[in-house]
């Protein structure tokens, strides 16, 4: 039995296993994705990016390739900003797309990307929509936040407390009536004009070292709280720095993307995961 091709990559240390599956033959289940992403019994990653032709899934897209994204716990999410950058980098490095501009299909819709020779990728992330306010509780402390939809749900708390001191090892509480499908939680400090620092607790993963959609949500929320709806900012996360621009009805995310390894999954191990 032949092995299953994989690659490992990251965008600002938000790390992913990529599974090239052009014709949509691989069966992904919650169990096999969770095992693959486990840092002890699998390869370890914050999520899986299945690289599949949109046509093979019967998905409408202006692009040839569809990013089938799964969180580390096996759940499906609509969108992943760092994942799209890594996905695009892989397509170029493997000769499946030419450097420059092309479109990647996602569950949140088409995302145009620009892949540069210096390994940085800009993604057009679509609208960042303010949907209301809510509260999250970290280790008994409430933080009020701005709810932002970036294709997936976010609650952004801009705080004076140094976010470096937060204990995000446990799932913070949130209002399940406001976020019935769960929510990504961002905690943000303003560092100065056009500069933010952020930590994140991701839905379906836990604390990660970066979240692309989260950084777009953070900039949109910080602008909103300052009475603005357009602007640009750097966002420092534990895994590095990205640049975000929010406009009316659109946004962009720019940052690095790396492919770090490639190999084969053991076919017997993989087949046994669902047994
Ligand atoms: N890390 C991602 C977001 C991945 C999805 C998220 N955990 C969710 O469930 O919505 C990013 O870079 O945007």
Outline:
The protein is built from five helices and 18 strands. With 275 residues, the chain is α+β, with helices and mostly antiparallel strands.
Secondary-structure map:
Layout: E1 4-11, E2 14-20, H1 30-37, E3 47-53, H2 54-57, E4 65-71, H3 81-93, E5 100-106, E6 109-115, E7 120-124, E8 129-138, E9 141-149, E10 153-158, E11 173-174, E12 184-192, E13 195-202, E14 206-208, H4 212-225, E15 231-237, E16 240-247, E17 250-256, E18 258-265, H5 267-272
Bound molecules: ligand LBFN2T5F.
Spell out the key features of this protein.
Diaminopimelate Epimerase, Chain A, domain 1, amino-acid biosynthesis, 2 domains, globular, lysine biosynthesis, 5 helices, 18-stranded mixed beta sheet, single chain, binds ligand LBFN2T5F, Diaminopimelate epimerase, cytoplasm, alpha+beta, 275 residues
The total strand number stands at 18
**DSSP summary: helix tally:** 5
Estimated structural class: alpha+beta
Euclidean distance between termini CA atoms: 17 Å
**CATH fold name of the largest domain, please?**
Diaminopimelate Epimerase, Chain A, domain 1
Estimated helix fraction: 10-25%
CATH architecture of the largest domain: Roll
**Order of helical and strand elements:** EEHEHEHEEEEEEEEEEHEEEEH
The low-pLDDT segments are none
Proportion of β residues?
Answer: over 45%
Average pLDDT level:
97
How would a textbook summarize the main sheet? Answer: 18 strands, mixed
Q: Give the overall shape, derived from the CA principal axes.
A: globular
Specify the CATH class of the largest domain.
Alpha Beta
Total domains: 2
